[in-house]
Write a structure and sequence with these properties.
Blueprint (H helix, E strand, L loop, with lengths): L1 E5 L13 H15 L3 E6 L9 E4 L13 H4 L2 H14 L5 E4 L4 H8 L7 E4 L8 H4 L8 E5 L2 H5 L3 H4 L2 E4 L22 E4 L8 H11 L3 E4 L8 H4 L7 H10 L8 E3 L5 H9 L3 E4 L9 H8 L4 E4 L4 H4 L6 E4 L2 H7 L8 H11 L2 H17 L1
Parallel strand pairs: 1-2, 1-4, 2-3, 4-5, 5-6, 6-7, 8-9, 8-11, 9-10, 11-12, 12-13
C-alpha cells in the first residue's frame, strides 16, 4: 500500500516546537512504514522526517502567512495542493490521507470517481465552516475520521455521514512511559498550547492568583514564540490583542510566568516537573495532544470536562475534571493525591504511536476493501 500523507504547507515535519498536526504526522509516519505501508509525504522542503518520497511546493513553512490579510495568504494552500494533485496524477497512489483544513476535503471530493480513495482527518472544531461541512458530499470515495468521539458529535449531519470512526492522538513519549523513572515534582501548574481564548490562559492566570498556585504558560502568541519576538509583534493580530488585554495583566513573572514556546527536552522537563497540567478549556478540544503528552510524562491533568478530555482522562485516577470554572482552582490543591505511575501506565496502554498507527491502518484497509 502506498499512501500520500498530506501534512500541508504551514510547518515542517517534525516542527521546531509548536505544531500539533505536524507533530502527529511525524509520530504516525514512521509507525505506518514499520507496518509495511509506503508513505509519500506532502509537506515543505525543510521537513526532515524520512519517507519513501517527498512532495512540496514551498521550501520553508508558511505559518507566518496565516497572520497576513486574506488577499496575501489565499494562494498558499492552492499552491501546495496543486503539487499534491500533480503527484496523484503521476500514479501509484493507493490512498490519500489528508490533514489540510477545509481545502483538503474539497480537493479529495474534486478528484471524483477516478481518483484514489481519500481519508480526511478532522483536527479542529467542526462548528467551523458550516457552509462547507453542512453540504459536503464526497460520494463513496471520501471518508473522514475524528480524533475523538466527542468531536464527531458536533459535526453537521452531511459531514457525519462520511465518518468512518475516530483515532485518538498519540505521543512518542508514551513508549515505555510506564517504566520511566519518577520525576521530581515542583509546585507549579503548566498550561501548554498556543495562547488564545479557547485555551483559556487568562482564566488559568486569574485562578493562579486567586487560589495561590504558581503557573507557567508555555506556547506561542500567534506566530511569536518568545518575549523578544512579541515585543515587535503586530498589535492588530487577534492573539496578540488577547495576550495584551486578557493575559498579560496577570503575568507578574512570579506567580504567573510566560516562557514562550518550549520544545524537546526543555518541554518534557517542564511538564514532568509540574504538579498538574491545567486545561481551562473554553472550547471543545477535539484531540488533546498536550493531554496525552502530560500523562506520558507522569503529570496528571486538571481541566474542564469538555471536548475530548472525558475520553482521555479517568477522573480521580489520571486527572481531575469539572464543569465549573470556579472549582478548577480548588482542584489544583487536590491533585497531589493522584499517582504519577497511573498516568504513565495509561499513556503506555492507550496513546503510543503504534496504537495510533494500527488504528489508521485499519481505517485504510476498510476504505480499500470498500
Amino acid at each position: 500500500m502506498r499512501v500520500l500523507m498530506n501534512a500541508g504547507p504551514w510547518l515542517p515535519v517534525p516542527p521546531n516546537g509548536y505544531g500539533g498536526i505536524e507533530n502527529i504526522v511525524a509520530t504516525l509516519v514512521p509507525e505506518l512504514r514499520a507496518l509495511g505501508i509506503e508513505v509519500v509525504l506532502a509537506t515543505v522542503g525543510e521537513s526532515t522526517l524520512p519517507a519513501d518520497e517527498h512532495v512540496h511546493a514551498f521550501g520553508t513553512g508558511q505559518f507566518a502567512m496565516l497572520q497576513r490579510p486574506y488577499n496575501q495568504a489565499c494562494g498558499v494552500v492552492p499552491a501546495h495542493q496543486a503539487a499534491v494533485l500533480r503527484r496523484v496524477a503521476a500514479g501509484g497512489i493507493d490512498l490519500i490521507h489528508d490533514h489540510v483544513e477545509a481545502a483538503g476535503l474539497t480537493m479529495l471530493a474534486a478528484l471524483g470517481s477516478g481518483g484514489p480513495p481519500g481519508l480526511h482527518t478532522l483536527h479542529w472544531d467542526l462548528r467551523k465552516h458550516p457552509d462547507l461541512y453542512g453540504t459536503f458530499d464526497g460520494g463513496d470515495r471520501v471518508r473522514v475520521n475524528g480524533v475523538s468521539a466527542d468531536q464527531l458529535t458536533h459535526a453537521p449531519e452531511a459531514l457525519r455521514a462520511h465518518a468512518i470512526g475516530h483515532v485518538h492522538l498519540a505521543t512518542p513519549l508514551a513508549i515505555d512511559a510506564d517504566r520511566r523513572e519518577k520525576a521530581e515534582k515542583h509546585g507549579y501548574a503548566v498550561v501548554l498550547g498556543r495562547i488564545n481564548p479557547g485555551k483559556g490562559q487568562d482564566l488559568a492566570a486569574r485562578l493562579a492568583h486567586r487560589h495561590g498556585f504558581d503557573l507557567v504558560l508555555a506556547g506561542p502568541v500567534g506566530p511569536y514564540h518568545s518575549p523578544e519576538a512579541l515585543a515587535a509583534a503586530d498589535p492588530q493580530n487577534p492573539d496578540v490583542r488577547f495576550w495584551h488585554e486578557q493575559v498579560a495583566p496577570h503575568v507578574d513573572g512570579v506567580r504567573v510566568r510566560w516562557v514562550g514556546t518550549v520544545a524537546g527536552q526543555e518541554r518534557d522537563d517542564l511538564v514532568a516537573g509540574a504538579r498538574a497540567a491545567l486545561f481551562p478549556l473554553r472550547w471543545n478540544e477535539p484531540g488533546g495532544t498536550a493531554v496525552v503528552e502530560s500523562l506520558a510524562l507522569g503529570t496528571p491533568v486538571v481541566g474542564i470536562a469538555r471536548g475530548c478530555l472525558p475520553e482521555l482522562i479517568e477522573h480521580g485516577r489520571t486527572g481531575l475534571l469539572t464543569t465549573d470554572e470556579d472549582e478548577l482552582g480548588e482542584l489544583m490543591h487536590a491533585v497531589g493525591g493522584l499517582v504519577e505511575a497511573e498516568c504513565r501506565a495509561e499513556a503506555a496502554r492507550r496513546f503510543t504511536p503504534a496504537v495510533m498507527a494500527a488504528g489508521y491502518a485499519a481505517l485504510y484497509e476498510r476504505m480499500l476493501t470498500r
